[in-house]
Amino acid sequence: MLRKMENHPKFENFLLPFDGKLNGDNRWVKLAEMIPWDKLENIYGKNMSEDFGRPGINARVAIGTLLIKHKLRLTDEETIEQLSENPYLQFFLGYEEFKQEKLFDPTMLVHFRKRLNFADANEINELLTKLMTARKSERPVKSNSNNSNDDNDKSSGGNSGKLLIDATVAPADIKYPTDLDLLNEAREKSEKLIDKLYDPASGEKKPRTYRKIARKEYIAITRRKNKPAKMIRKTMKKHAGYLKRNLNHVKQLLKSGKGLGEKDLSLLEVLRKVHAQQSEMLKNDKRSVENRIVSISQPHVRPIVRGKAGAKTEFWAKISVSVVDGIVYLDKLSWDAYNEGQDLISQVEKYQEKFGHYPESVHADKIYANRENRRYLSERDIRLSAPPLGRPPERHLGKRETTTLPGRN
To answer: In CA terms, which of 279, 319, 353, 358 is 20 to 30 Å from 256?
Structure first.
């Protein structure tokens, strides 16, 4: 249930446990006056009932806490500690007096984030960036008298501003996956499902899982300094067989009448997909499969090959972003790998929707500089700052450009 926000307090009336008042020039006091909390409440309350359920924490506290966390780059635990120590942060959240105890548990931030899907978070970002852009336009711009005419001529041409676009991967906090570790984890979780479904009072014999033997085989190979490929493949085949046997036991136990909760049913579906994918790769001697699961706890995470020296493969979501005047806009989020070069046209069109005109120049990597994008930008008189197509020209070293190593003739 959505708890409606009460009247927003004024910093002059904020009660402190000691003599004194808040400083009106503090950044958090100024930021609290700038943010349209009522509009943020409408976005936050989209997925919450207004008349059913236990009243939750209001939208200003929820969204304000997330803003503080990301602005100060804190962990969830450190964010709560800062809230209990700083009266300006508590005023920013809408409290009327300073509270020395912890306002709520750090796990509440997880619930705050779950109530905001990608569209809601993007809508809040758009709202706040428009506010920042409007305030920047109100500031007087310092310019030399010699360049003022040139600037006016450029702005009168229709296109103005610079658009910087790029794509990256937001890293996931997961263990680097291997097929053997994934099969072993799936086997252990399937054994726990069997333990939940088996009823000792039924008088039937508990299904055999070979868990001790499987554990010894897994430990034997993980402790080896050198792990031959044949040994890894042999162990993987055994664990795939153990997992298949356990899944069949779970299927039979479900038919007996006892059921599983929604969370366990979702886990069971993931285990079935893991077994199907690993069996396909083992049978066909492949190292990849479509929509490959690399984390059982986060089955939506996909491996994305980046080809960088530090990490050739990254895991989590791939995002396309655009930067305008130091403000970052999130244009696309996908759990699957994609060619970011196809996003240039949509990102330029979003720029036109936001600011009412096209950018004067677009700055991007070589992957964006394909023929279709070049043709699109040329038709709109937008300059592309990217490497040209084709091979780079060859450099021929002349006599004056040749170098010799020290100590050699």
So the answer is: 279
The β-bridge partners of 389 are none
Q: What's the angle, vertex CA 203, arms to CA 202 and CA 205, rounded to 5? A: 110
Instruction: Render 300-314 in DSSP notation, one character per residue.
Output: T-EEEE---SS-SEE
pLDDT at residue 325, as a whole number: 83
pTM flag (> 0.90): no
For 45-81, give one letter per residue: b (16+ CB within 10 A) or e: beeeeeeeeeebbbbbbbbbbbbbbeeeeeebeebbe
Q: Quote the tokens at residue 352.
A: 């036109």
Q: What is the secondary structure of 198-238 as a DSSP string?
A: --GGG-PPPPP--HHHHHHHHHHHHT-SS--HHHHHHHHHH
Is residue 289 within 8 A of residue 276, CB to CB? The reply is no
Distance CA 192, CA 34 (A): 52
Token couple for 330: 């999130």
Q: 175: which 2 tokens?
A: 């263990």
pLDDT confidence band for 372 (50 / 70 / 90): very high
pLDDT digits (tens, 9 = 90+) for 182-225: 999 999 999 999 999 998 888 888 899 999 999 999 999 999 88
- Specify the 3-state DSSP secondary structure of 318: strand
- What's the gap between Cα 401 and its chain centre? 49
Contact in structure between 346 and 324 (CB atoms under 8 Å)? no
pLDDT at 368: 92
Calpha distance 43→363 (Å, rounded): 33
Please tell me the distance from the alpha carbon of residue 38 to that of residue 395, in angstroms, as a whole number: 62
pLDDT given at position 13? 67
Q: Does residue 287 carry a pLDDT above 70? A: yes
Residue among 402, 403, 373 at smallest CA distance from 386? 373
Write out the E strands in 295-407.
Answer: 302-305, 313-324, 327-334, 361-363, 383-385
Reported as type and span, the H/E element at residue 167 is strand 162-171
Q: Give the CA angle between residues 15, 87, 132 to the nearest 5°.
A: 115
Residue whose structure tokens are 């190979």: 221
Q: Is the pLDDT of residue 347 over 80?
A: yes
Q: Which helix (H) or strand (E) holds 355?
A: helix 344-355
- Quick one: tokens of 271? 């285990």
State the Cα–Cα distance between residues 206 and 204, nearest whole angstrom: 6
